[in-house]
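User: Structure tokens for this complex, please. No commentary.
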Amino acid sequence: MYFYVFDNFLQDRRYESDVAAVETRLAQLGIQGRSEKITILKNIQEAVTTAIKRGATTVVAVGNDSTVSKVLPQVVEHNVTLGLIPIGPEQTIAGYLGIPAGAKAAEVLSRRVIRRLDLGEANDQLFLLNLAAPAAAAVTCDNKYTVTSRDPDGQLVITNFNRGVGSGRPDDGRLELVVERGEQRGWGNRRRGFQGSIFPFTKAKITCTGSPTVVLDGQRAIKPPVLVTVVPHRLEVIVGPQRSFE
Amino acid sequence: MALFQHDGQHDSKDLETLIGASVKVEGNFVGAGDVVVEGHVAGTLKTSKNLRIGPAAVVKADIEAANIWVAGEIRGHVKCAGKIELAPTAKIFGNVDSQSIAVAHGAILHGKVTMAGHEVAEPKNANDK
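Assistant:
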């Protein structure tokens, strides 16, 4: 059974027609299932947990990257399938999974092509997309070698998905440390060719002097030291034909 | 071998590790895919595939790889299962073990070169005569 959880920000009037189009298309395809629209008075994690206890086997996050990040712990804990209907800005995850925006995503859901993806775990918190750390951090990979950036304007990103260079995949049982140069952050500069660094690993420790934070999936901040491990093939997710991996 | 195209781009699908110019790596690095070094490495550096040492790279490490292309500086023992190629800007301060070697005009090589695959064959030929 499908459970659709509509994120709080979709209450905004500008998303009214998108939400209505999604609901209509789900009904046309016969996969409407149960749904809940999150408001400021409802907790999204509680709504998902309750739905799973009532028999939901697929949780569909209707919203954006933030929505996925919020439902991810419950989906993984209860071993159910994750689906995504992208509405609104910040759709990096949908892009990697090859899921089109709005009502077209319903067709991807109905085809139900499923892949098992790795997840990252940072100090017991799961992430699907990435972990961002400041350039001042040092990352020790697989207890063998330590990577530091000599560019104070750069950024260290631990990523599950391939960022356009290298051979990494979200189902290869590894994560990648990507060290981006300060002058390369931004799309215009990316096109000139990647000049940063890539290190695949299964376990890493992030240390940093001072009191900076690292950010998981662009949503949650935690303080170093951070132990990062890969959790292979932990997430079952519905993917589209335009996904960034096989 | 896309890794050894000398155009400064790293588009090889086999590329696993890229140590960029802005990065320093210390410790024992072991890779299983192609590795490109444009930055600083100290310790040991091993891969079962190809290794490219870019012109700005400074490697103070013992190295092992299947094939190696060098345009930067290496201080350490280099062990190559296949071919090592030294570009005009290459500097190696250390011994080199390799099946075959190509040295461009201008490259600097301070060390003993051992062609491991050929050592065994020569004495046998001498005994046959």
